[in-house]
Records
---
Amino acid sequence: MLIHNSKRSQKLKQFQIPLLITATFIASVGIGIFTFTLPLLSLDEMAGGMWLGTAFSGYFLAKLLIAPLSGIISDRNGPKKILLISAGLASLLPLIYLISPSIESLYAIQFALGLCAGAIKTVGMAAVGAQTSGNKLTKRFSTLVAGINTAFFLGPILGGFLYIDRDFIPILTALSLCMITSFLLFTLCELSQNCVSQAAPQPKRIESKYIFGSALLAIFGRTLGIGGLIAFYPILIKSSLQLPTVTTGIIFSIPNLATILLLPIAGRFFSKAKREFIICSGLLISAAGLYFLADYTTISEFIFAGIIIGTGSALSIPGSMALCSELSPEQGKTLGIANLITNLGFIAGPLLAGIIINLSGELTTSFKLIALAGAALCLPLLNQALRIKFKSKSILIVPSIALISILFLVQTNFTQDFKQSSEQNPDKTLFRYTDVAMGTIVNLTLETPSAKKGEKAARNAIAKMRSLQKDFDHRNKRGSIGRINRAAGLKEISISKEALKLIDHGLKFSEKSNGTFDITIGAVTTTQFYYALGPKTIQKRKPLIDYKLVEINLDKGTVKLPHKGMALDLGGIAKGTIIDSAVEKLIVSGITTALVEAGGDFYGYGNKTWTIGIKNPRGEGLLGNIAIQNKAVCGSGDYYQFITTDSNSGESRRHHILDPSLMRSSHESIATTAIGPNAETADALATTIFIMGPIAGTKFIKRFYPECSAMWVMPDKSIHKTNNFPQITLTAKAAEPRKNK
């Protein structure tokens, strides 16, 4: 009987590590769903770049606080109770939002979730380390990391699907279910009474007092970059590629997918290798991927950079965990300190990235600088590894060369930014303010003698932009447009004065263009990947697209869509309206001269001539430059959202600008630039004349908007302009501009 029980006990013991890893994996899935989706919700709720970075850091601050404490407790009292309490508490956190539904409640949940997640990860690692030794240590940590990274690969994808309707309740439900499942699995684990390893530590490791400190610096550098990447990478993807949330989630997950696939290989082939060298190699590879990611603009390039970053992580993470685990028998304490440093990097990364964005006005600059910082911080560990390898105290050649190279790159980046800033703003009364709004980077260049006055005016303007975008976005169910669309075929809806005015202007523009510009195109465009739908599917919705059917009552302040399935999409005009509102706010604040830029659309006013760059629709950089004064410049093109398909005539591009009369993507041009007295007119005009083409578009402008001007880039890359379009200084190869009479 005793023999039978002993065999059963040994058999159960074999499953403890897999069971522990599975429970940690499921908990991480819930965390991944929440942490990926929260930045997207923050954009929808118009939270700013610094606020988003600060709030996101709260999650890692909580993990930092709990890591060493939970590790020490697990050394003394065992891991099981801590794991059960953490998972159980996390499963109840969504109740906070149900009691008080606000974005502040979600940030509170995020902080509390950080406490739970930090305890689960630290104690789970310590439990694995306490029951493992030798070469198995790297392999088991590879399996644990693979499980966590798999969770953070699936989490964003699931989060993208669950958040497809911009409703956060499914996200919170998924978080709760994952944590309940994790709790049940933790109850089945029969773990040791404490997290003190019975295997004797290696004497050489203990004697090398600098190894642990160098390893912690390297870990901090790695998480510095990852923290900034997690917080701002979704925004970079959306602003660069203009993709739906599901696709954004997939691309965001590529580094984790690469890590997952390569971890088994790294755990098997590098378990006996010198850990310090493997860690440094991985860290430098990841830093390189993050650095060059900043210059990438296509999906394939983002995927490539993600693979490089993931490869470096697969090499460095298990090795750093195993290295720290070997330095002391007290697994909880040692790994707790390592996790403290890890989360310190996660806190510093988003904060540093947010600060750099505000100072430089460039999201990509922040990625480059935190990548270089991460590379520099792994050099002390590399130096220690070389000293031990060659048994010398003066092996500094390789780290020195690497450090000089890193400092050179940092100096080059700062010098370029300074030169650009000096060239753009030679006048000391010009101040530039940068933030995130409308899902893109917003730059305000203000002429004011007081930086304090300019900062206050900029904050008010950007706050107004966020407020209006939230109200105008059809994806926001609580906004004016969202409520109208949800009530289609049912009832009229009372909406804000701003939304009512915008819809009225949109209907008038639709009437003037005879439906070429039609705000009821939302019957198609509010569907994800609508430009990839089959022709028959799109044609079925044509009866629902008719601006004449919209019932608007200006006196009552109501709008009704009479048929179910109808929907408004004001994306072709709302951005301009929001920019105009920002300009009004600046003028009210006493800013007499300024340039407002949001995602490639501009409004420059005051006693100053502004130079505006026009994007090259089929290449990198700019097509050319124009000069404006007291004008708005808006563009439209087939390169923002599109797919390519093979046809008999060659490659065909299906993009987001639909011709309502043909119910397919318009191919009259590939890009348009419209200049008008305000951004609302220029924005709507850019979309309309894109569909019309240069001949009909020129006639339309002459008849209804003679004060406006326009330029078309044609499929053959030739350029057509109206007679009154400003002189363009070409910087890219293009055919000679033609003027349309």
Note: The chain has 25 helices and 19 strands.
---
Amino acid sequence: MIGQGLNRVDGQLKVSGRAPYAYEQWDGQPLYGFIVGATIGKGRITRIDTEAAERAPGVRMVMTHHNAPAQGVPDLSVSFEYWRAYPALADPDVHHYGEPVALVVASTFEQARAAARLVDVEYAEEPGRFDFAAHEDEAYAPDAVNAGLPTDTAVGDFDAAFDTAAVRVDQRYTTPYMFSQPMEPQACLAVPQGEHLTVYVSCQIVDSAHSSLAATLQLDGDRIHVVTPYIGGGFGSKLRVHQETTLAALAARTLGMPVKVAQTRQQIFELVGLRPTSDQRVRLGAGRDGRLVALAHESTMFTSPRIEYAEQSAATTRPLYAAPNRLTRHRLVALDLPRGEDVRAPGEATGMLAVESAMDELAHVLGMDPVELRIRNEPEVDPERGVPFSDRRAVDCLREGARRFGWEQRPTTPGSRRDGRRLIGYGMSTAIRGHFQLPMRARVRLEADGTAVVQSDMTDIGTGTYTILSQVAADGLGLPVDRVRVELGSSEFPTSSGSGGSWGAGGAGTAVHRACESLRETLLDQARDDARSPLHGVNTADAVFADGSVRVGSASEELRELVARHHPEGLEAEGETQSMADDPNYKEYSINTYGAHFAEVAVDADTAEIRLRRMLGVFTAGRVLNAKTARSQLIGGMIWGLSSALDEDAVVDTRSGAFVNRDLAHYLVPVHADVPEVEAVIIESFDDKANVLGAKGLGELGICGAGAAVANAVFNATGIRVRDFPITLDKLLPELPLADS
């Protein structure tokens, strides 16, 4: 059952509109809240007049810092920031543009939105720090970067090796602010029930939402129930709850009625964390044979002065290529903008844009095939940690991708191939991403009728968790998949680390697998000792669970008969996955996922318009749990890589700290017409060091390096190297040669 490309078990519910998302939940007639955001980027509220708004039709309350209930403050001893308190309207200070200054609650959404315009706010504006380039010389070194990785690393003597290298590349690459933009906005319905509170919220980690709300509201966690069975995309933007959830909960408890609050699309650009802008310097020193002797990757990024976030953009280079002399560094520039947060493939998405562009530049200087250059620098052990790789098939991905793509037909001279007025180019890059493992728990219950129920607070953000866990449980118990029911996204279920960091499927699947293992052991022991069972006295070591039965040789018994006889009320067991810190494999091995991207682009020689013609990714991530959902995830990541190369660019007005293009009309992402032929191929393996299932996460692998493959193809087409992403017409057009008259 594991690995089959089953259709999503929740698919019919979603396409028929019967899968309720957070804002669609119903628990009595709700009130509706609308957030009023600050119109300055830094300062303090000196006066806020809510009288006109309070007199508006349908308005039940206007909450400001004057009447907001007391809330907890973030506990910095809690290691993961997403689990800390997240107060709203706690004081008159404004820390960034769009920060909530009021919440208007009314009988309808339209009434709340209209009344929000009537809230009159005056500010004492202060000078803000909004310009990254202007403050880059004030960068500082954080204590650690995301995921607890070291800020800097150094092996050998980089400076000496680089200075004496036969061939050198020393370039800077810049990436803009970027945003997660899930189809479903951040939204919440809070329902008070006496001293208890039920919160229907769109979040990727139920436990972080539960803990953050308990700390913010200063309530015992037993009084809060978080429900999030369906999530319309997250991409990191829902790893924590945001202020719509805090405000809905505060208003519901104050008014004693259900309250719904959803962010508008524009508010997502102001109230949800972003991928930091970066300025990355990559230095590569190599011999004439292409073998690296020195490698350095230094990244300077934005952070909020209130909540530090250091994206690990240079860390992705650490296990990537062999080089005896190396260094990586991360530095931060504090600005008065919305906080940085995890956006799909944090670190790798921006870091690989830089380092894989630099490797292409090195290949060009050497006159070497970019695929061959990467193969020559394939490490035998982790270049910085010195430990073996658990299961590394990066070269297989490179070779298979080159074969399938027809890489041997690549134009060897940039700007040399035309198709009419279009310049044609090929590009490629490597993909790598660390595999993470966080604690997970799941409960599996066998009913007397032979069906199974899986329960965990694990979430499905559209990635196929319901389906994958159904397959793992069906495989573990020998049941048809339609006799397994998976229940997710409730704080009443066993605690997991949710969906994020590509750790969800492998971790939750392992927990379910272990719960099934425990159930099998219990049932086999009872059958062997039960004179009424056809399996009485047999050697259960040879037992096979399949087709709803347990078989040992020629003897068999239906699972439902065995359960009904010994456990008429049902039998359940829990399984657990430990964290990386407690699993010795993650100390003794370098555990990653790998891939290779290939892209063909056409660039209009007159207008500089770039069009993707085709794209191929070849990946390896251990055992595949569902071939269909895996391919879907990889293709989605590849398209996001295309987006980071050519489209996404959130622009800050350095006078006010506001994002100028804060809607999907101006913050560009690829649409169907931009994405012709995209294919993902999986080389399946089994990584027994990752977990008992041999599976590793791949939800973010598809984006890693994908943008660099497109960028390298643009260079191959035009001979123009753009290092300031995204690659837009204005950066290409001035350098394009004039057509012959």
Note: The longest helix spans residues 504-529.
---
Amino acid sequence: MRRLGFPSRSTLPRFHCEVMYSAIVKRLIAAILLVLSGISFAQQCSVARAVVQTVPERYRFIFLIDLSKSMVGVGGSPNIFPRVQRELQRFARTLPEGTEVRLITFDAGPTSDRSFTLPGELDRYLAHVRSLRATGTRTYINRTLKQTVMALRPDERTATLLYLFTDGRDNDSQTRLQDFTRIYQLQRGPHDWLYYLTLGIDVPAEVRAALAPLGRTQALSAAPGTIPALTVSSVRPATLHLGNLHLEPEPSRALEVRTQGGETALQLAVRAPELERHGALLSVTPGRIRSGVNDLRFTLANAANLPEGTYHATLCVQGPDGSMVTPAAVSLELAFHPAARYALEPQSPLPDTLSLFAGQTATLDYTVGGNRWATEAITVRPGTLPDGLSATVNGAASATVRPGDTVRLALENAGELPRDLPQPLALEVEASPGAQVAPVPLPTVTQPPTFLERWGLLLALAALLVLAILMGLWWTGRPWGVLEYDGARHRLRGRTAILPRTAGDLAGLSLERPGARARGPRLLAVPSDIELIDEGYMLEVQDHLEWDTAVAVRSYGKPAGSFTVSRI
């Protein structure tokens, strides 16, 4: 507790000097606090990447309220307690459904601990706040903090926001603040915050020193008789991907702010030591944002000496006194390099034209390649295909691959392609924004005619020719006459009919097939040992025989019989 004395008349000049000195000191302290606030803001940025950059699903508020008598003005302090009560009531009315609120009072350690689920139990909570009375004689801050956090368990999905309201210094000789901070570092969750507010007095230097390494803390002092308005702002998303600033130096991104406890403005600043090391500057506009969706524009300047690569930066988000922001730092992921270039390189030489018969399949294998910046996954799928042709990539409708992977394009012809007309193939490659994809070498596809389609006409003509030949042979080989001699019948075939040995004396007799209008066959050869007599005339070679006319045969000058030739 603070005690204020009043100067006597004899010490008035000295008192005026002390007042002037005190005013100067207060200004210096205010300036130092401003600098410390800026340093704290930068520190939050510097540790942002070490903090889990996610957004909590829910909030839990724990208020530690000093009930020492000085809170109501005993000892000359301002009566700040009614303002604390009003702020606790105002803030509770703004909380969303299902919010857990714990109110822990303390003087010589915790005196009461009540939990409420708001807004369902808002009336009970408000009545409890109104019933509080500051009658304590001790201010055991460190002990209260220690006992409170020892009962907490970390929850990665819940943000536990711990608020301490006091107007005095800790006067517990047995518990140090370091006893609390050591446990708090082990017990706190990834979204937990500590808000250490001193009312009417400056935050002790040893408190600032002890809390500074913790991160996600605020140690603030309120002017006498005042209390800052409590607000909690959540920022989404926790990570912004700015893309490749070599290709787009001024990307725009959206940042959503949700605020509990009342409207407030948040201050933005970019901390980018990796860029600043090379003289480059990353800035954001606007520098202040409010609840809702905010459109931010990031600008990279002085990047002439910035090496190609990927970088990390931090977007610091800070509210006014009494405001908590989760997360207090948004991770910025960015790149600065030429465009990533991808290529699908054939694993073996490709033909200009790929011939697929109906029902036939073929595969084409490629390797994913690219420049040094082609590191992300790409999606490959068949493009527009001609009717009757189906395709898969790595056995599916599409495939997600990375540089070095194999892409197998499997083609199948269902038998509906136009004959011998080249059909184009296409592969669609989807890469990250700004990336370039080289044209994919692909053959055209044709469906060649089948063997019958290609040679069917010639085969038909050949068959007809063979048939004609066979018909001719049949026609020429069929009997055209019958020669009767010595009681035997001999069929005459072919263009030239030669009688066999079974014909006896006429063996070797040769007759030429007569024409349609001829009187009969013509003699082509007569055995030397016989003579042929027709009506008293000896027949010679080239003479014609009459149909059905008897021809006498003499062998060695003696009659041997006669023969006739009849038409069939």
Note: The chain has eight helices and 35 strands.
